[in-house]
Protein backbone atom coordinates (compact mmCIF):
# COMPACT_ATOMS: atom_id res chain seq x y z
CA UNK A 1 0.00 0.00 0.00
CA UNK A 2 2.85 2.34 0.90
CA UNK A 3 4.56 1.60 -2.43
CA UNK A 4 1.35 2.34 -4.32
CA UNK A 5 0.94 5.64 -2.50
CA UNK A 6 4.54 6.60 -3.24
CA UNK A 7 4.09 5.69 -6.94
CA UNK A 8 0.85 7.67 -7.06
CA UNK A 9 2.60 10.73 -5.59
CA UNK A 10 5.36 10.42 -8.19
CA UNK A 11 2.82 10.16 -11.01
CA UNK A 12 0.90 13.17 -9.69
CA UNK A 13 4.11 15.21 -9.30
CA UNK A 14 5.19 14.30 -12.85
CA UNK A 15 1.70 15.29 -14.07
CA UNK A 16 1.94 18.71 -12.36
CA UNK A 17 5.48 19.35 -13.65
CA UNK A 18 4.61 18.37 -17.23
CA UNK A 19 1.41 20.45 -17.13
CA UNK A 20 3.34 23.53 -15.97
CA UNK A 21 6.16 22.96 -18.49
CA UNK A 22 4.07 22.01 -21.53
CA UNK A 23 0.88 23.88 -20.72
CA UNK A 24 2.17 27.17 -19.32
CA UNK A 25 5.92 27.77 -19.69
CA UNK A 26 6.48 26.45 -23.23
CA UNK A 27 3.38 28.14 -24.77
CA UNK A 28 4.28 31.35 -22.92
CA UNK A 29 7.82 31.37 -24.31
CA UNK A 30 6.61 30.59 -27.84
CA UNK A 31 3.98 33.35 -27.62
CA UNK A 32 6.50 35.94 -26.39
CA UNK A 33 8.98 35.02 -29.14
CA UNK A 34 6.27 35.04 -31.83
CA UNK A 35 4.85 38.38 -30.68
CA UNK A 36 8.35 39.88 -30.55
CA UNK A 37 9.88 38.48 -33.74
CA UNK A 38 6.80 37.92 -35.97
CA UNK A 39 3.96 40.04 -34.52
CA UNK A 40 1.98 40.36 -37.76
CA UNK A 41 2.09 36.64 -38.55
CA UNK A 42 1.45 35.67 -34.91
CA UNK A 43 -1.74 37.72 -34.97
CA UNK A 44 -3.03 36.14 -38.17
CA UNK A 45 -1.61 38.53 -40.80
CA UNK A 46 -4.95 40.33 -40.85
CA UNK A 47 -5.27 43.00 -43.53
CA UNK A 48 -6.90 45.99 -41.85
CA UNK A 49 -7.77 49.04 -43.91
CA UNK A 50 -8.68 52.49 -42.62
CA UNK A 51 -11.73 53.69 -44.52
CA UNK A 52 -12.44 57.26 -45.60
CA UNK A 53 -14.69 57.84 -42.58
CA UNK A 54 -11.79 56.94 -40.26
CA UNK A 55 -13.10 53.52 -39.24
CA UNK A 56 -10.99 50.41 -39.65
CA UNK A 57 -12.20 47.24 -41.31
CA UNK A 58 -10.59 43.80 -41.36
CA UNK A 59 -10.68 42.20 -44.80
CA UNK A 60 -9.06 38.85 -44.14
CA UNK A 61 -5.70 37.22 -43.68
CA UNK A 62 -2.82 37.55 -46.11
CA UNK A 63 -1.88 33.96 -45.21
CA UNK A 64 -5.26 32.22 -45.50
CA UNK A 65 -7.29 32.08 -48.71
CA UNK A 66 -10.56 33.92 -49.14
CA UNK A 67 -13.06 32.63 -51.68
CA UNK A 68 -13.80 34.89 -54.65
CA UNK A 69 -16.23 33.84 -57.36
CA UNK A 70 -17.28 37.06 -59.11
CA UNK A 71 -15.84 37.65 -62.60
CA UNK A 72 -14.37 41.06 -61.67
CA UNK A 73 -12.04 39.43 -59.14
CA UNK A 74 -8.91 37.32 -59.29
CA UNK A 75 -9.95 33.82 -58.31
CA UNK A 76 -7.68 31.58 -56.27
CA UNK A 77 -7.21 27.88 -55.91
CA UNK A 78 -10.13 25.60 -55.05
CA UNK A 79 -10.75 25.58 -51.31
CA UNK A 80 -10.58 22.43 -49.18
CA UNK A 81 -8.41 19.35 -49.23
CA UNK A 82 -9.32 15.98 -50.64
CA UNK A 83 -6.44 13.62 -49.77
CA UNK A 84 -7.01 12.02 -53.15
CA UNK A 85 -4.22 10.48 -55.13
CA UNK A 86 -3.20 12.69 -58.06
CA UNK A 87 -3.92 9.75 -60.36
CA UNK A 88 -7.22 8.63 -58.81
CA UNK A 89 -10.48 8.59 -60.75
CA UNK A 90 -12.09 10.86 -58.12
CA UNK A 91 -9.34 13.47 -58.54
CA UNK A 92 -9.62 13.24 -62.30
CA UNK A 93 -13.38 13.82 -62.03
CA UNK A 94 -12.88 16.85 -59.73
CA UNK A 95 -10.32 18.39 -62.09
CA UNK A 96 -12.64 17.84 -65.07
CA UNK A 97 -15.53 19.52 -63.20
CA UNK A 98 -13.29 22.49 -62.34
CA UNK A 99 -12.08 22.78 -65.95
CA UNK A 100 -15.71 22.76 -67.13
CA UNK A 101 -16.53 25.45 -64.53
CA UNK A 102 -13.70 27.67 -65.80
CA UNK A 103 -14.86 27.24 -69.42
CA UNK A 104 -18.42 28.23 -68.48
CA UNK A 105 -17.24 31.05 -66.19
CA UNK A 106 -14.95 32.62 -68.79
CA UNK A 107 -16.07 31.26 -72.18
CA UNK A 108 -14.01 33.79 -74.15
CA UNK A 109 -10.77 32.45 -72.71
CA UNK A 110 -9.39 29.57 -74.77
CA UNK A 111 -5.95 29.53 -73.12
CA UNK A 112 -4.81 26.46 -71.24
CA UNK A 113 -6.01 26.58 -67.63
CA UNK A 114 -3.09 26.55 -65.16
CA UNK A 115 -3.08 23.49 -62.92
CA UNK A 116 -3.30 25.45 -59.67
CA UNK A 117 -6.73 26.79 -60.67
CA UNK A 118 -8.18 23.27 -60.85
CA UNK A 119 -6.35 21.52 -57.99
CA UNK A 120 -6.51 22.30 -54.28
CA UNK A 121 -3.35 22.99 -52.33
CA UNK A 122 -2.11 20.65 -49.61
CA UNK A 123 -3.60 22.85 -46.90
CA UNK A 124 -6.73 23.76 -48.85
CA UNK A 125 -6.33 27.41 -47.85
CA UNK A 126 -3.40 28.60 -49.98
CA UNK A 127 -3.77 32.40 -50.37
CA UNK A 128 -1.55 32.51 -53.46
CA UNK A 129 -1.67 31.44 -57.08
CA UNK A 130 1.06 31.24 -59.67
CA UNK A 131 1.75 34.19 -61.95
CA UNK A 132 0.50 32.00 -64.83
CA UNK A 133 -2.84 31.49 -63.06
CA UNK A 134 -3.13 35.24 -62.53
CA UNK A 135 -2.23 35.95 -66.17
CA UNK A 136 -4.92 33.49 -67.28
CA UNK A 137 -7.51 35.77 -65.63
CA UNK A 138 -6.22 39.20 -66.75
CA UNK A 139 -8.43 39.69 -69.81
CA UNK A 140 -11.63 38.72 -67.96
CA UNK A 141 -10.90 41.07 -65.04
CA UNK A 142 -9.97 43.91 -67.41
CA UNK A 143 -13.18 43.41 -69.38
CA UNK A 144 -15.36 43.21 -66.25
CA UNK A 145 -13.81 46.32 -64.68
CA UNK A 146 -13.45 48.31 -67.91
CA UNK A 147 -9.72 48.66 -67.29
CA UNK A 148 -6.75 47.96 -69.52
CA UNK A 149 -4.98 44.63 -69.28
CA UNK A 150 -1.83 46.62 -68.58
CA UNK A 151 -3.44 48.16 -65.46
CA UNK A 152 -4.49 44.72 -64.22
CA UNK A 153 -1.01 43.31 -64.81
CA UNK A 154 0.54 46.23 -62.89
CA UNK A 155 -1.64 45.46 -59.86
CA UNK A 156 -0.84 41.75 -60.08
CA UNK A 157 2.86 42.52 -60.38
CA UNK A 158 2.73 44.66 -57.25
CA UNK A 159 1.46 41.71 -55.18
CA UNK A 160 3.69 39.05 -56.71
CA UNK A 161 6.50 37.77 -54.53
CA UNK A 162 9.61 36.07 -55.86
CA UNK A 163 11.33 32.93 -54.72
CA UNK A 164 12.40 32.82 -51.08
CA UNK A 165 16.11 33.69 -50.89
CA UNK A 166 16.06 33.93 -54.68
CA UNK A 167 16.02 30.18 -55.30
CA UNK A 168 13.55 28.43 -52.99
CA UNK A 169 9.93 27.87 -53.98
CA UNK A 170 8.03 29.55 -56.76
CA UNK A 171 6.83 33.11 -57.40
CA UNK A 172 3.34 33.68 -55.98
CA UNK A 173 0.51 36.17 -56.38
CA UNK A 174 -1.53 37.03 -53.26
CA UNK A 175 -5.17 36.86 -54.38
CA UNK A 176 -6.68 38.89 -51.51
CA UNK A 177 -4.21 41.75 -51.90
CA UNK A 178 -4.78 41.94 -55.66
CA UNK A 179 -8.55 42.02 -55.17
CA UNK A 180 -8.38 44.68 -52.47
CA UNK A 181 -6.20 46.74 -54.78
CA UNK A 182 -8.64 46.23 -57.66
CA UNK A 183 -11.36 47.62 -55.38
CA UNK A 184 -9.14 50.61 -54.59
CA UNK A 185 -8.69 49.63 -50.94
CA UNK A 186 -4.93 49.00 -51.00
Automatic annotation (TrEMBL):
<keyword id="KW-0547">Nucleotide-binding</keyword>
<keyword id="KW-0067">ATP-binding</keyword>
<keyword id="KW-0472">Membrane</keyword>
<feature type="transmembrane region" description="Helical">
    <location>
        <begin position="12"/>
        <end position="34"/>
    </location>
</feature>
<keyword id="KW-1133">Transmembrane helix</keyword>
<comment type="similarity">
    <text>Belongs to the KdpC family.</text>
</comment>
<dbReference type="InterPro" id="IPR003820">
    <property type="entry name" value="KdpC"/>
</dbReference>
<comment type="function">
    <text>Part of the high-affinity ATP-driven potassium transport (or Kdp) system, which catalyzes the hydrolysis of ATP coupled with the electrogenic transport of potassium into the cytoplasm. This subunit acts as a catalytic chaperone that increases the ATP-binding affinity of the ATP-hydrolyzing subunit KdpB by the formation of a transient KdpB/KdpC/ATP ternary complex.</text>
</comment>
<keyword id="KW-0406">Ion transport</keyword>
<protein>
    <recommendedName>
        <fullName>Potassium-transporting ATPase KdpC subunit</fullName>
    </recommendedName>
</protein>
<keyword id="KW-0630">Potassium</keyword>
<keyword id="KW-1003">Cell membrane</keyword>
<keyword id="KW-0633">Potassium transport</keyword>
<comment type="subunit">
    <text>The system is composed of three essential subunits: KdpA, KdpB and KdpC.</text>
</comment>
<keyword id="KW-0812">Transmembrane</keyword>
<keyword id="KW-0813">Transport</keyword>
<dbReference type="Pfam" id="PF02669">
    <property type="entry name" value="KdpC"/>
</dbReference>
Amino acid sequence: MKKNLKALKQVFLCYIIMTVLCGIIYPGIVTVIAQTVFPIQANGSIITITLRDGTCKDYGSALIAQEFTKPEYLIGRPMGTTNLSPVSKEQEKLVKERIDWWHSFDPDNDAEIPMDLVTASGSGVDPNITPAAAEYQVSRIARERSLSEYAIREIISKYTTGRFLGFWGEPAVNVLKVNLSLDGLL
